[in-house]
Automatic annotation (TrEMBL):
Heterodimer of an alpha and a beta subunit. This is Electron transfer flavoprotein subunit alpha. The keyword Ion transport does not apply. The electron transfer flavoprotein serves as a specific electron acceptor for other dehydrogenases. It transfers the electrons to the main respiratory chain via ETF-ubiquinone oxidoreductase (ETF dehydrogenase). It comes from Collinsella ihumii.
Amino acid sequence: MSGLTIDRERCIGCGRCVKACASSALKLVWEGPRKFAQVGDACVFCGSCVDACPVDAISIAKDGAADAQELASYRGIWVFAQVDAAGHVMDVAFELLGRARQLADERGCTLTALIGEGADGTDENARRLVAAGADEVLVCRDARLARPDAEVFAHWICEMARAFRPEVILYGATAFGRELAPGVAVRLKTGLTADCTVLAMDPETGLLQQTRPAFGGNLMATIVCPAHRPQMATVRPGIFAAPAADETRTGEIRYVTLDASVAPRVRVLDSEPVGTGRSIADAERLVVVGRGIGSKKNLAVARRLADAIGAELGCTRPLVEAGWLEYPHQVGQTGVSVAPKLLVSLGVSGAIQHLAGIGGAQTVIAVNEDAEAPIFGAAHYKVVGDCIQVAEALIDALA
């Protein structure tokens, strides 16, 4: 069992641990002529008190990692297929299936899609998941799954994971996915890497390598979970390209149930859509501008180019911070991840967090005066020059 232990034989009642505890979980109590430190329920096992104790009287015991035989009993990759309010599988699920299919082939294991929907669901969603690459689909139709209740879904996924023991579970980093995945991780006592931009299998260890920007996007960190299963990660929409549907694929559709004892604790009285505007994440063509356009007035040129090619307008974070464009236009790890068929990049240097958000683009045309700009590493066509002059020339050519 995990927990914090205080050795009363060593404790001298100095109170340093109490001062170090940010959760106010420790206090000093008298027992006879001596004072001792005592831990309460607010402890989060951060270890600050362990470091503060001058006599090594405090220790934290953690649950032991699974042994090799236990870890080997987990097999297969799962993708949680979230459905929208209309009951259709969301695009991010297909994007995840495309990458997971490649990982499953490398690993030599089964790829399973997991879908929970209301009692009136049909097999159409399951068939689409098979066509996108799933070998099997676990389907649960239950009125309790008709709305995105993270607690109910977490109970169901944990029940399935304990029964079938997958080695990997992937989730889309939607608002619901970001709420759901941590709840599953806590219940299964495993790890979770959020907002991954790269997923790969280590050929030697078989571990899932989960890569995401770290330290404010200044570097990329690759994270592994060697001692616990399942390995879990969330991936933002638009990071991977969705595969073309193959209607000739065959797969097994298995119907599962949700434990009858699971009951929603939240009752929804009413709901309203956040907005009805078109998101740049849905755009097939996109013109993205960065600080290299020089000034706000040059946005007009970028808009003319976007109109000429039937594209939406996006931007980098500095332009949003400067007030040139609003946040819904921001492309990157801290904005919107996009996967257009065509992306024209004007004056964008290509910071890590921006590149993380355009990884799904099929064709990237980059224009920048700096021949060493990182954006060129992600571009299929590269133009070194003044981005506004190049944009105006393109507009004239398309007129």
